[in-house]
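Inputs:
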Amino acid sequence: MAALTEDMKNRIRAFLPKYPRKQAATLPALHLVHDELRTVSNEAIVEIAEILELHPSEVQDTMTFYAFYKGEGEKNGKTRLWVCRGLACMLRGAYELIEHCEHKLGVKCGQTTTDGTITLEFAECIGACDGAPACLKEDVHVMNVTPERADALITELKLK
Amino acid sequence: MPYEPILLARINKPNSGKLEGYRADGGYATFERALKELQPAQVTTQVKDSGLRGRGGAGFPTGLKWTFLPQNHPGPIYLCVNADESEPCTYNNRILMEKDPHQVIEGIMLSCYAIKSKCAYFYVRYEYGDSFRSMQSAVDELYAAKLLGKNILGSGFDLDIVVHRGAGAYICGEETGLIESLEGKRAWPRIKPPFPAVEGAFRKPTIVNNVETMACVTQIMKRGNEWFKSLGVPPDPKNPRDAGSYGPKLYTLAGHVEKPICVELPMGVTIRELVEKHGGGVWKGRKAKAVNPGGLSMGFVDVNAPLKGEDGKTEYDIPLDFNGPGRVQCLGLGTAAVTVIDDQTSMVDVLHNVCQFFSHESCGQCTPCREGTGWMLKIVDRLRRGQGRKEDLDILVDVADRIGIMPGTTICGLSDGAGWPVKTAIRKFRAEFEAAIKSGAKSQYARSLEVVGAH
């Protein structure tokens, strides 16, 4: 069975006219697949490579540079929750916040809760320093996260 | 008279991100006038004469960079806008993209007209989801209004803007790393020369400019060079190589300040004024100990260290223009993102955080950087655990001095930026580090995070 639906493949093909070379659509294609399937499996890499007229190893080579993507055998939960540990956040309690979230969720950074709802991560500076300590919910900033706000956020994400 | 913001003038208006709102404030009239009345070379000349220097960190004169493109090139020529703002504690570009995307885009359009580019790639970091969406919807509005695409306003000028998302790697802010990443490869910076202006994206001549630089281009073309040069600091007459620090600048405040905000001021405000007047002072009524004046790579300022030859002034009083931080051994102005560290904070913990960042974000291409940042982290981690050795401080400074493009051991400047905070922290706060080694005290954070491998 194919990893990507025909619709996903068409949306990847739609990226191609924006760039003079097909390879440039690698990151957009990886994002598309990763956002929807929560991982980019080896099979998905092969199918992306086919569309971009690359060898699968070229797509793999690029993908593995960006620790952002989860590959074969790894999978993000429904929501990926990043806690920033940059200096601005650290000065305002980020380390305590990371520890708090790890305890609350019963996982370490990089792991997913057993119910599959939340993947906890630490992030290097996410540029939300005016709301430090800050989190990133998928790709949306959550500012001024106190332990209480983190608890509320986690409850909300668990119910989603 | 308080300074009236120009770059941030629209950010609190309702609908500030929409084309309609921007048009109502006279938006795109400057671009339309340039299309009708100016030759591309005239736009380049005006930007060059304005004295605008790039806002991304290095401060290279923008117009001069444009003139490095080959003459009469058949094309294509590309503009890459660097919106990968990942320098820790920096968020000024984010404010512009989220709240006033059209001001940035008008600058992109003017710049593309000047450099005869028909295609701009807007590379925005993945973590800026809201910025991505506001930029993309602004671009969509412009296509619908026929201000982007083929034959804009019947002038014969074509322009496409593609918003492209990164994937969480700091190195993509280095211009050739950005280009490699845009091309769909590992973001390994390229050896220069050739510089991107000669051979950049897709092996074509390419200009890489920062988001705030683009907003400045809009205002320069709208208000003229006299306005731009009426703000900031003129070149030092004693230094023939100084290009001056003209214009407004977005400063961001973070860390231990009462109000962590982004403010626009004429270039050259002092750290003291910025923190005390605009940031509401140091939080919790404490005193500042150290300040990072422009993103972590720039190093640290010792708030209490007297400034040589200036009675009663300290490093806290240096002006934040392109020359100021260099006077106190910092790397430069950087992104003008000011982070305050209060007197209750351990510099060992701060330095550990810094080393942790650079070790995580080194792309691994050059051995001195990959290994150097890793070993600096391991040594600082040892200090943090109370197991520091007397020689550690000298080893740290030695490593920091040997990695980077300045000593000539790496391809890009990441490790210059990794070394600078280490050197400045240890040189300026040596007594604190020595005391930490002597006492063997363990940091309160020593166990909370594990050392994580390279990026």
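Chain B has three domains: 19-227, 250-342, 347-439. Flag for discussion at group meeting.
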